[in-house]
Integron integrase (Desulfocapsa sulfexigens), 339 residues
Amino acid sequence: MMGIMENKTKFTPNPKSKLMDQVRETLRYYHYAHSTEKTYCQWILRYVYFYDKKRHPKEMGGREVESFLSHLATHGKVAASTQRQALNALVFLYRDVLQIPLDQSIAPIRSKRKPHPPTVLTENEVERVFAQMKGTHLLMAKLIYGTGIRLMECIRLRIQDIDFGQRQLFIRSAKGGKDRTTFLPRFVHDELHEHVERVKKLHRQDLEQGFGEVYLPNALARKYRKAAWETSWQYVFPSKSRSIDPRSKKERRHHVLESGLQKAVKSAVRKSGIDKRATVHTLRHSFATHMLENGTNIRVLQDLLGHADVKTTEIYTHVMRKDIDGLQNPLDRLYSKSN
């Protein structure tokens, strides 16, 4: 049985609005991230189109949801995490928008989990990749490899999340809504400090031009009404230009897009001649593996990475370099006898 979470707070969207407008209204009431809004809307539309728009979702229920999720697994061959994402979107639709909770016994055909060992770069390969990068993208890549933070955690860093004195990074509302602390590498300390000073100067220019407001979650924006204009709340990696916020319609300077760093790392891997499917996330995998190889306690590493379960951290023990120099290979032994 696939579990379905209950939501204590109740909100009723405008019944006169179209279905997708009701979905967006409810998502925004509960302060879901813009990326989650886009994802949930896509899954809900796929569900509606799966039944050729002949029936409104409120006329369907658990049986139809189960059939749709099973189709994703058997015909779409989607990953288990993708199937779970689709379920979460439909649970939200029925529970929070239509307020018709789904049957707890939904049991679709499950997508099979296929555990794959993570791709890891050697220290030499990381150095070769960095040699092909420059500017802010290089600084971000160094920060991810040197701290083990995720791509979006890096991009969403605020100036106040860096403690240069204690050499620490504070990761706020990370995966699972949890906060954690990791260390700041000495190697990027000065470079990051200079970068932050340039960001502060950019912010002062925005303020002089009548802008300078940054996005804050609604709860924080209500509690700290002037915080959005303060330097400490500005993004460490802001975009080069201001843009219109799709929800508030205000002109703000948001953080950089994740696609920029993704493309930069992909290009650097190709130019360095490394024949591995390495991405930005590979830098996080490499951080974890190299920390274990250098003797870091796995529980400490679990905290640094923000893993809820140590079993997730243990996957890196399967790809870390083992001390096998003293072992004799059977092929070498076979031919040493003949010689």
Notes: Residues 3-8 have pLDDT under 50 and may be disordered. The chain has two domains: 1-114, 123-318.
